Amino acid sequence: MANISGIVKSARNIMRQDTGTGSDELRILQLGWMLFLKIFSDKDKELELMDDNYTSPIPAELHWDEWAGDDEGMTGDELLQFVDRKLFPTLSEIDLSTAKRRAVLVHEVFANNYNYMKSGIHLRQVINKLNEIDFNNSKDLHLFGQIYETFLSELQSAGTLGEFYTPRAITQFMTEMVNPEHGETVLDPACGTGGFLTSVIEHLKASASSVQQREAIAKNVRGWEYKPLPYMLANTNLVLHDITTPDIQFGDSLQRPLSEYTRKDRVDVIIANPPFGGVVSNNNENNFPQTYRTKESADLFLILMIHLLKDGGRAAIVLPDGSLTGDGVKQRIRQKLLEDCNLHTIVRLPNSVFQPYASVATNLLFFTKGEPTKNIWYYEHKLPEGYKAYSKTKTIQLAEFEPLKSWCANREESDQAWQVEFDIIKANGYNLDIKNPHRAEEEKQHSSTELLDLLHQSFAKGDQLLEQLRKELV
After folding, report:
1. How far is CA 369 from each of CA 241, 256, 258, 305, 316, rounded to the nearest angstrom?
2. Which of 287, 309, 122, 271 has its CA nearest to residue 194?
3. Cα-Cα-Cα-Cα dihedral of 126, 132, 136, 139, to 10°?
4. pLDDT in tens, 120-151
5. 20 to 30 A from 314, CA-CA: which of 28, 51, 71, 352?
6. Residues near 56 by Cβ (< 8 Å), separated by ≥ 6?
7. pLDDT score of 156
8. Can you say whether the dihedral through the CA atoms of 62, 65, 70, 76 is positive or negative?
9. Are 281 and 345 in a shared domain?
10. Is residue 143 part of a domain?
11. What is residue 328's DSSP assignment?
12. Do 273 and 417 reside in the same domain of the chain?
């Protein structure tokens, strides 16, 4: 397998030398459209071979292989002029009269982007780097997620595009827990680069027993994203996962009045990591009923997601500790969640799960709409033995969720699991930030007497070691 982070770093270093891509943000936008075209082109050629009726919306001479595939091909001013004067104008003004979604997608990507690089020689060097990645032959479709993760770690200084990349282990675990089935509609209203969507697609593909089922996946798995770069990368990611025409809407999920969503907009499953810590823009909070208006994006997303679920619909979402507690609007939003939905499980994650992007304490919430909450099971996910925290090199792994999966099948209290009744939560102002009571007991056990004992033991051990050392020195 290609060393992705190495290739991306080399490409970034080449772009650093170019006057047009002097910032992290511009380098990532540049890589974004190039990766989109490379992957889209490859998939289009595959489709043309497999389906006699399929014609790519991209003119033959503009396919990646035609102008970029040969490492010894055009370079310098010739390449720069080709990209600026032929590639971009043609693809941004692509014929949309066919109303084919793939043509629209190419138009959207190229009408909203630029070739930022000013040197055709640098551009050729970056192209050659990307040609080292062969997505088609790769057994690992998650190369794309890896590339995006590498992007994100570069993005910390880019600021405006900073996003949380949900670790793959978490997207997979949440997908397995919520278990989307064929024929169900699945939505991620804040889909970023499509991590949850690709998890759901892979989950459904694994159990597809007919061509019809496989084809229906594309129609039933939907995403919404309002930032241009993640939107472009999400489309690329889904194309890479054999979704010929991804159903991803470009736009702010919070900008439509809640009352405008009708029965036909409702879905069976929602799986998401909504943006949190963000301040809602364009006064979008006014699209929500007065009683739930807030500037905190995660809280508005929670109201939106409850609204968008069908009765009996299931959700798995990531929420920060800050959304589990607080008075006023926050409390009313939690009350609505508990009265309209059965919030049956909250998984408490260690703070470092989202490193290196954020050290916010987060939780996984699992709920079903249409019946009130009677009691909530909490489960504390502990760090693996010997870890002080997760990090860029020590990320959370799917295997770590095995004990939690077994526990879900047969729920019992343990030192990691506890149950809280709705009445207790209601009496406590709908506060959901409930710490592990067993841990509190452990801490209590080390009371003053025990601590004195432990201290005496360590002094005794210290005396022994000193005595031993004295004998050796004599």
Report:
1. 30, 22, 17, 10, 12
2. 271
3. -130
4. 999 999 999 999 887 766 555 566 666 766 66
5. 352
6. 41, 44, 45, 47, 48, 63, 102
7. 47
8. positive
9. yes
10. no
11. T
12. yes
Mark whether 288 and 314 lie in a shared domain.
yes
CB 80 within 8 A of CB 127: no
CA dist., res. 225 & res. 223, Å (int): 7
The CATH number for 50's domain is 1.20.1260.30
Beta-carbon contacts of 229 under 8 Å, excluding residues fewer than 6 positions away, are 28, 29, 32, 161
For residue 63, the one-letter residue type is H
pLDDT score of 340 more than 80: yes
Residue 311 falls inside a structural domain: yes
Single-letter amino acid code for the residue at 148: Y
Helix (H, G, I), strand (E, B) or coil at 299: helix
CATH of the domain at 283: 3.40.50.150
Q: Do the bridges between strand 186-188 and strand 221-225 make them parallel or antiparallel, or are there none, so unpaired?
A: parallel
Residue 429: inside a domain? yes
H or E element at residue 172: helix 168-178
DSSP 3-state percent helix, strand, coil across the chain (nearest 5): 50, 10, 35
**Domain containing residue 201:** 168-435
Residues 31 and 88 in one domain: yes
Contacts 24+ apart (CB under 8 A), 408-414: 408/177, 408/345, 411/377, 414/438
Same domain, 282 and 394: yes
Whether the Cβ atoms of residue 313 and residue 269 lie closer than 8 Å to each other: yes
The first and second tokens of residue 346, run together, are 């909250």
Nearest-angstrom CA–CA distance, 160 and 162 = 6
Total domains, the chain: 3
Within a domain: 431? yes
Q: How far apart are CA 11 and CA 31, in angstroms?
A: 8
Rg (CA), the chain: 26
Residue 57: CA atoms inside 13 Å, Cβ hemisphere, count?
Answer: 24
Residue with tokens 């694994």: 206
Residue 115 and residue 182 in one domain:
no
Q: How far apart are CA 6 and CA 323, in angstroms?
A: 38
Detail the DSSP E strand segments found in 279-374: 309-320, 341-348, 362-369
- Going from the C-alpha of 271 to that of each of 56, 229, 368, the distances in angstroms are 32, 21, 12
State pLDDT tens for residues 56-111: 899 999 999 999 999 999 999 999 999 999 999 999 998 887 657 889 899 989 99
Rounded Cα gap, residues 270 and 187, in angstroms = 5
pLDDT per residue as tens digits for the range 275-304? 877 778 788 888 998 899 988 888 999 999
**Does 182 share its domain with 311?**
yes
- What number is the average pLDDT over the span 175-182? 97
